Amino acid sequence: MTREDFDDETLMAFADGELDEATSAQLETALAADDGLAARLAVFLDTRRTVADALKPLIDDEVPPRLAEAVARMVERAEGGTGPDEQTGAPDNVVALHPQRRRPEPQRWFMQVAAGLVAVVAGVAGFAIGRSTDNAAPDAHQDLAAALDGQSSGMDVPLGGGAVLHVVSTFRDERGELCREYQLTDRGNSTLTIACRRDGAWLPQLALTSQQPADGYVPASSQETIDAYLASIHAGAPLSADEERTALSGDVENITGDGE
Amino acid sequence: MIDDTRTVPQRLVAFLPNLRRFAISLCRSPELADDLVQAACERAIRSAGSFSPESRFDAWMFRILRNLWIDHLRRAKTAGPHQELDEAGDIPGPDGQVVSHARLDLLEVTAALMKLPEEQREVLVLVCVEDLSYRETAEVLSIPIGTVMSRIARARKNLARLTGIDAGDERSSGTKGGMA
Fold first, then answer.
1. What is the pTM (predicted TM-score) of this model?
2. A226, B75: Cβ pair inside 8 Å?
3. CA-based nearest residue to A256, from A204, A197, A205
């Protein structure tokens, strides 16, 4: 009977035609006598119409020929059975999503770049974070490993000596290993790294260092390379905050259980 | 229920305009949206075996596209400074052309939409533009239906405030940072 009987969700469900009949009838009765209630309902009716009016016409846009042709080719390949097996997800069918892609054959190009960089990392930086024998900065490696073990993504973590760690995301690679993408900024250099956890240590898989202005902004080209690399290792979707917490604590416990 | 015997790749072609509309509303850039749509089509073709013909094709596709977008977004968002509010000023009209004065209010709505938090905008678009039910939206987003409802309700109240739909005289730009 009173306006408190109808919360926003109920009014909205009515506006959207999703309210059950009995409650709808009660609401209709109440609306007749309550201008305030009617005004609250109007917000939901108006916003739906307004949003629809603003965005629905987008469907009449011509699909850009570049996109239409790309999809037509994919469809033809899938239907003709000449392409990779559509059920198994052949690797050459995987794309990375990156913002400014404009080249006709982008994936292949990026894959080559990414593959080259992996080789460089394997040769030059083939150390395990946290188990490094690098005498110059053992503490820094320990700090980084500890931070990677415990810090949530999206946070800036000072590591001492002016270095700042920013963990970008956490995901699993195709073997199910826990991996993290992070950015380490130190004395004007910024290194974007993907490291995966193996036998208790974080092993860098890919590292891109660039000279950075103080704001630590990652150049788009680095991000494209990272995206291409992630696609090439079949990186899973970034874990949610909860999944990340569970995965980090679970993986670390497993490892300490092994007698680290 | 749905007696559509077309294969996933065949349906994709017809569905491109819808997919692109949803992509543009998510990522606010036609260029990025096209990349997103292309990636979603590739993934859909690859995982065509997991689509059950009796379920809704549109919801399935929206889910694929939205997951790709979230992958992209989470990395991009945590890697760099947030630019949403600044970029919101550059939203093109639906046809990407210079728009007539009569369409300014729609542009204003679009601009306001783009200022909404990601999670509010996507529910709003799925329900109010793509006409999915609350339940279908919950399935696309893998969240409880109650969460869908509270998010859309908040989104609409924020939008009403941003555009002045709620009839108040509070149309100042100072409200744009005030929403949850």
1. 0.53
2. yes
3. A197
